[in-house]
Structures are given as structure tokens and as C-alpha cells.
Amino acid sequence: MSARLPDDELFLARVCKGLGHPARIRILSHLMAEDGCVCGRIVEVMPLAQSTVSQHLKVLKESGLVRGEVEGPRTCYCVNRDTLTRFAPLIQGLLRAVPETEEA
């Protein structure tokens, strides 16, 4: 019988996976600054092909960091602030558990 991971650990791992690429961090930062965006606009500010940006947005949505709402022929993306609110104390708790190292 395998032990089941606590929900907070699964959530933290899912969000960290979403943050696991510099392009996704840049997209998330852009969405936070814009407080919402259309996919085409994201492509304008990223040095990546539209298909690559779409793939990164898919991962961000799967991780819960981004929400996408269909508005006619486009999808409007925004940051899921509920995810960030839950993520912040969990990552801070994880960092507090890491022992400080002495500098040489």
C-alpha cells in the first residue's frame, strides 16, 4: 500500500511545475502587470512563436496559475490569484524548513 501525499504537497508540486520554465514565469509576470490579457497580446511581448506561447499557457492553466475565458474567437487569460494566495505561505513554509548554511 503506498502512502498518499498530502493535498498541500500535491498542490505545491503542481504549481512549481507550472513555474518550471522561464517563459512561463515571464508570461505570468506579464499577466500580473496587465491584470488580464488576450493570447495575441502575450505573443506580441514574448520572443516566441504563437504555438509555443499557447503550449506554455496550457501548462500554466493546468497548474492553476492562470485562468482562460473564451471571449468570442479569442481566449482572455488572467492570473488565478487564489492559487497564488494559497501558494505563497506553502512555499514560505518550505523555505523556512531549509537549514541555513554558514558562509565559508
From TrEMBL:
Keyword Transmembrane helix assigned: no
CDD domains on file: HTH_ARSR
The entry's keywords: DNA-binding, Transcription, Transcription regulation
SMART domains: HTH_ARSR
Pfam families: HTH_20
InterPro entries documented for this protein: ArsR-like_HTH, HTH_ArsR_DNA-bd_dom, HTH_MetalResp_TranReg, WH-like_DNA-bd_sf, WH_DNA-bd_sf
UniProt-recorded Gene Ontology molecular function terms: DNA binding; DNA-binding transcription factor activity
This protein's record includes keyword Transcription: yes
Domain HTH arsR-type positions: 5-102
NCBIfam families xrefs: HTH_metalloreg
Name recorded for this polypeptide: ArsR family transcriptional regulator
Gene source species: Pseudodesulfovibrio indicus
